[in-house]
Design a protein that fits this description.
heterodimer; A: mainly beta; 6-stranded mixed beta sheet; globular; B: mainly beta; 3-stranded antiparallel beta sheet
């Protein structure tokens, strides 16, 4: 079946602009995760959604970052007033509860 | 704090040579550990998990609680093993990743 999809694959923006990144999880997966992959930094957890529970936002680096998940499926990660240090690959993953996480191809964000 | 350390940024070996990718962790309790791999231009994917005690693509990893390590090993490297490898630790609902090691297998 279809895996996790993300859009856009690449996004170039100017410092100070807002961006939205989209994730479509695997159908039936109740858990959805966002991670950030920076050069030399590995993968950094950002936020976790599970069903209708309140999301775990403990990894969001600042209040410029927010995410929502509509209808228990598609998720959008929003970064407001982007800064150059926000440049990274943003990865989405989904899973059944506490099971293997399946990753999307990522969105490469470049802030000029 | 729970942490995963991969001390090598790059490991370069010749085809047919043994490979060991190092991973050390800090965790109070019973850890659940994983190795993920990302081949060139492909998405990150699970390679193996310690609770499965399986061998995938010839790779194995043994959890050593005394040394708090979960090193990834393969007796004979192949060129198609060249990739980025991440060690990860489950902490609640999320994964804590190491910085990753690039494995380069030379012919």
């Amino acid at each position: 079946g279809a895996g996790v999809s993300q859009s856009p694959s690449n996004k170039v923006t100017e410092k100070g602009k807002d961006v939205e990144l989209r994730c479509d999880p695997i159908s039936g997966h109740t858990a959805l995760y966002w991670y950030r992959q920076s050069l030399g930094q590995g993968l950094e957890f950002l936020i976790y959604f599970q069903g209708n529970s309140a999301p775990d936002k403990s990894g969001l680096p600042s209040d410029r970052f927010s995410a929502e998940r509509t209808g228990g499926s598609v998720s959008t990660l929003t970064i407001q007033r982007t800064q150059q240090e926000d440049s990274a690959v943003y990865l989405c993953a989904s899973s059944l509860v506490a099971d293997t996480q399946y990753f999307g191809p990522g969105t490469r964000l470049t802030v000029l | 704090a729970q942490r995963v350390t991969q001390p090598e940024k790059l490991l370069s070996v010749f085809k047919g040579a043994p490979v060991e990718l190092k991973c050390n962790y800090s965790y109070s309790g019973s850890p659940e550990l994983f190795w993920y791999v990302q081949y060139s231009r492909q998405r990150l994917q699970l390679l193996l998990r310690h609770i499965s005690r399986e061998s995938i693509k010839g790779f194995t990893a043994d959890l050593n609680k005394g040394e708090t390590s979960f090193h990834l090993k393969k007796p004979f490297a192949q060129e198609e093993d060249s990739a980025m490898y991440y060690c990860a630790l489950r902490r609640g609902n999320k994964l804590v990743f190491g910085a990753g090691t690039i494995l380069r297998v030379k012919s």
